[in-house]
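does this look right to u?? N7-methyl-guanosine-5'-monophosphate version
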Amino acid sequence: MVTSCWVKGCKNRAGVNKVSFFRFPRRPENKRQMWIDHIIGQESRLTSSEGSDRRLRLGKIQEPSNHDRICSDHFITGKPSNDPLHVDYIPTLKISLSTTEAPNKISSVSRKKQRQSDLALGSGDHHEGEKRKEAAKALLIMTKMSTPRSSSSRKTNPQSKWCKQKASQTAPDASFALATAKISHLEKEIALLQNVNSHLRSQKQTFEDEIKRSRKMAPTPEDPKKRKIDNESGDMKLSDDCSSSSLLFKDFTLKRVLREDPRSKTISLHGTLSKGEHTSASAVVLLERKPFEVSTLEDSLHKARTTETLSNDIYSTHDAFSAGISPDLKATVICPATEKHISKYSEHEPFLVRETSDLYKSVTEPCIAQSKFSIQWVYNILAKKSESERIVVEDPDPELGFVLLPDMKWDRKNSDQLYLVAIVHKHGIKSLRDLNMQHLPLLENIRSKCLAGIKEQFGVPPHQMRVYLHYQPSYYHLHVHFTNLKLDSPPGSDIMRAHLLDDVIDNIKGDPQFYQKATISYVLRDGDELYKWYKDANYFEGDCS
Ligand code: G7M
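got this back:
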């Protein structure tokens, strides 16, 4: 028998088309059902009828047998994955081709499964099953409602009364078990769909890039401005819209490599960028190698040119020239850049400071007061003049409120690299040093709402998050960093700079004046303004113990 694909409308056959075929998984049981439900669900979205469906028997779609297969065309990476959070845990590509089925017939497989699951739960009584489902639905909605959200969504829900009634009308244990199982199943599906979503987005971007390349779009002179960050004027635009690629660095003149780190594959450059026909401006450009884009990797490899650099028995190494299908560099541009920006991204000698409460008052605080480093970009975010479309959670309360949004360092593609920053609405809280008892509600509000929002929107649970403040921060308006634990040592997450938010809260609870009294250690670099103040105060002349 010729092996063919179970997806309706897919014409792939073994030996005819260059595709691989995969069995329906036997275990875990819900994975097999997820495949069937997803395929049938997607097919049923189309109502057009063309051709016959060979899977029909007596007007119903039969469950796939041991001989039935799905072909590699329906998986983003070309094969199924065993990881429930992987995009190819279920087939998702090219599913909604066509169907001859009316939706009520199509759902017969699912209905049968539902009946089986009612029986498996020990009921067999249809009426009881319906009651349980209603209770489960009620509990499910209640669970969703009790999840902390941004203040704007915290309204009284009219469903709430109905839910409580329904939930209490049924045997609480059975209905609770059913609802809990359903919730965990749905949570897995949500995580899965989030992954599918991000892979499809990156694929879309790749195709858009390819169309652009094939049209050989000429760079437009005004394009470069779109991706520039101008910290002096405070005007910043970060855009995900790649429909306007340009040759931003075509006229970049390199003056100096400021810093290079082969381990993190980053480099910072100082040079000039053209600002119109005859003018150019000082610019700091930070370049960083991006992580691999799995969805385009295979295609990229097919087109990559390689040069062998070593060969020994079964081992060989090669220099590969990537085909440039997906972007492989992230560039951050500061233009026009001041001497301070140049200094900030240059290589400098590190020096340890143990800042006592007296040193804070006599050296650090006056230095911060005189600092002219613009934080207009922060005020732009708070006033929704910049990056408003990137806001993840906002609490507008003037005392307890904040804006949570992706940090400039995160490209928002991969939640393993998640990096967000929460900036408080209240002005005047410069840093950790200003925090005392009266700020506990603010800190706890940020902690709970941001972690809930991150779980809801990116599927990363609180126990996989690293939440901390910097001391010294790079700007003196209170903000909190939220990074995924899987993100390996993000800059500033080391013991010389990061203070876990949970520890900060506990320290203040133990002593309301903790951060006004504590001696805090940190590293300054000889290019920092604060370093100069400490040097002028002869701090580095003596023994700093
Ligand atoms: O705590 P510290 O001050 O070191 O951290 C500041 C954080 O703000 C860094 O992680 C920066 O990457 C981030 N950041 C800096 N700028 C200029 C911007 C910006 O314009 N937008 C966003 N979203 N984050 C920024």
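Residues 275 and 281 are 6 Å apart (CA to CA). idk if thats expected tbh
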